[in-house]
Amino acid sequence: xxxxxxxxxxxxxxxxxxxxxxxxxxxxxxxxxxxxxxxxxxxxxxxxxxxxxxxxxxxxxxxxxxxxxxxxxxxxxxxxxxxxxxxxxxxxxxxxxxxxxxxxxxxxxxxxxxxxxxxxxxxxxxxxxxxxxxxxxxxxxxxxxxxxxxxxxxxxxxxxxxxxxxxxxxxxxxxxxxxxxxxxxxxxxxxxxxxxxxxxxxxxxxxxxxxxxxxxxxxxxxxxxxxxxxxxxxxxxxxxxxxxxxxxxxxxxxxxxxxxxxxxxxxxxxxxxxxxxxxxxxxxxxxxxxxxxxxxxxxxxxxxxxxxxxxxxxxxxxxxxxxxxxxxxxxxxxxxxxxxxxxxxxxxxxxxxxxxxxxxxxxxxxxxxxxxxxxxxxxxxxxxxxxxxxxxxxxxxxxxxxxxxxxxxxxxxxxxxxxxxxxxxxxxxxxxxxxxxxxxxxxxxxxxxxxxxxxxxx
Length: 458
Description:
By secondary structure, this protein is of the alpha+beta class. 15% of the residues lie in helices and 31% in strands.
């Protein structure tokens, strides 16, 4: 049996890829790279932003027909900032993954070594463990510390001890580690046998109260100060600060056949096998979804800001709840949220990618909830790419002709066709908008951010 998935690049170029269910994820990635005409090392991410294990089969990775994946090809460019010395900058070559604490970064290089920079007591200085950082497979970060999984399944930590940077008390248990998750101040590691090891003071670092329940664990999610683990039987175990979702007793009998969990800063939302959703934690942070519970059917994906959740339904519509200002109320854009393929969140806002490649945002404007300054590019990315592909360097006539043929919409209070056509509008503000479009189109083209229309599916 085969499945068909959509694989997207960050440029919005995408392709449909068919693969056998028993084929490896690595094989799927290679097919996607061929279809998208890209080279280099890359990683496939699922709709939740998680990196897929290339060694797993498509079935083991729980991929289904219609899933939307993202292909990250490593063409990394970094600029020096305060705290990144020239010696560290020179080492940043062949970067495979970058992880961030509150004020520091850790980069895994192609040879499995790690380069760190930033504030030392936030994990920016790894000199005390540098010799141990070999064959690193994955790095996770708390607010002020890092934890690295090595190829042999052991773990190396550094940074502030109170935030998980010191793991000596449990080091003898950290064997055959498969996955690490982090709250603000603690870490939780899943071992090959499905057991869990936690460390650090508070915020879920002490799991002794539920140790006997932490068996056959498949996945862990974290709020700021608590953890939630999904077991193979679909049940859920929680621990940590009760006010951050660490106590799920009020909904424990509903947590059956759980497929996925997402967390805001203080609350959790679980998708069940039947497509319904169970939430817990403080209501102000999305822990109470009762106001929209009847709408939460056939849920495919959930994303979270700091204080709200957004769920994509099977028909491509979206349901939101939580603090309105931080994305819990999508009423102003609800009629536009159709055929949604993927949602991403900042601390206080959401951005939804539609099937036609356009983007809809809502939530706190200061957190990215208002993209009106670039709305024409967000809403009409394919039209701009088509124009670029047909005219190597933008000219007013070519731009207007191509765009007017393919666009039907508005920019602010003005019809977009009036904005684009100088014969229809001579308003100074519309001239400024036209000038803006030309500059953006040229800039995007020269930076290689737009792909040819021949490679882009409409």
